[in-house]
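TL;DR need structure tokens for one chain.
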Amino acid sequence: MATPPKLGIAARLNAYIANTRVGKRFKLAERNTTFTTELRAGTATFLTMAYILAVNASILTDSGGTCSVSDCTPLCSNPTVAVANCTGAGLRVNPPNDSCKFPPVNPGYSACLERTRKDLIVATTASSLIGCLIMGTFSNLPLALAPGMGTNAYFAYTVVGYHGSGNVPYSSALAAIFIEGLIFLFISAVGLRARLAKLVPKPVRISSSAGIGLFLAFIGLQSNQGIGLIGYSPSTLVTLGACPRSSRAPLAPVMTAPDGTVTLLPGGAVSGEIMCLGDRMISPTFWLGMVGFFIIAYCLVKNIKGAMIYGIVFVTVVSWFRNTLVTAFPDTVSGNSAYRYFKKIVDVHVIESTAGALSFSGMGKANFWEALFTFLYVDILDTTGTLYSMARFAGFTDDNGDFEGQYFAFMSDASSIVVGSLLGTSPVCTYIESSTGIREGGRTGLTALTVAGYFFMALFFTPLLASIPAWAVGPPLILIGVLMMRCVVEIEWDDMKQAIPAFMTMLLMPLTYSIAYGLIGGIGTYIVLEMWDWGKDLLGRLGIRRCLKSDSLISETANGTNNGAHEDVKKHEVV
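>> reply
TL;DR here they are.
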């Protein structure tokens, strides 16, 4: 009698875990999965979404965070003279003003931004960690959470504005997210989420993801947070860029006084270095970014797990070498400071400014509530849609579209938004990259807990994460846009009532640099195109159309009778 083959270490471990309280709690046998499969699935999910740690922090840092004019340092009228020596003839110490936040950025403000970026890396990591823990423990689903792409761009560039140039301060925007999270938690608790999502016009609901993808790709193509392919043109607004730093110049709105002096327009600001003076398409960092782009693109084509992270890692490591044309640490004061922090490699950074920075003083302003309801709308659509799509992909849904753990899944991401706002980051949501882990066989909350474990380890490597350059972040932003465009096939392009609002939603988001304006444009267009049909339906329900039709029929009958009598008279006369 042949002896049964001896089980390997992995098989014995899986058999043991399946019969423990952990295995029964997470229903490993019931969902036809194993412990090692869940670990592998969690690893695959983390690799595909780890880019968010650097990308989210970089985008949110563009808002300026808690940095203000008070962080700027006084400078001598002659930049080459130190403030301590600024006492000679014709020299004066210039106190900082709002212009210190814009290029050329004041050294004090730059230092504050660097501290904020470190804070936001930790805030992103911690909020993702907590979100995955909640999702895995309570809902037992293989879904990972992190601050959402799209809402972070809306937060940084529309609500708060570049370096605080928007209508809502950073601290007030966090308060808006906090309140929105509580509202979201309430409507999740009472079961209103799915119903509210269905109130938004279908073409706008479908196309909003594609519009956000185009918006992110547009950001990734610019020099401030991307590869720099797009530059400014005074005649066509945008044009081909990719020129080196030495050939770029900032722009500013100015006015010339009668005496010939030139001053900045009231409320105006100096831009980043967005205009190419020459040498287009020869920027070394652009071409390095393109190498990263094609690495990620090739991995996506070949369905290689961790595509985004491979491209980011390659470009980043090449950029870490000093004294090169693509170095992330140029020989400047800020570059030397960044390099000193990078050399620590391992460092447990404690959040200094972003945690608990909420301020409710702006609640009386319309811009505050506009931001709040936009965040709420996007969270209702994106998060709810992602949850349902991932549940369908994993085969969890029933005939009605519901799935096991649905209630706690809704509660998990809603509570994660509240936690994220307290740490200082934009709304946390379920990630579509969870599909990678599901494809690897993940079926339980152990996949989400595995992702949480990786986020915990990331807390100790803040110096490395803080040293990822913009041209390493740009390629994944562009390709995330590609992935988010897949929803356009669901739009009924043959029906103009569906196609036009969908197109306006997608078009306005990147071109107005605002997700909110895209949604407003799409919904507004849909309402105008449907008003005629709605009006007819309303008249029908009120009975007015029926009365009008009856009157018309009576009139036609009467006219027919009169015409018949008239014809009889004519016939009688002829006879």
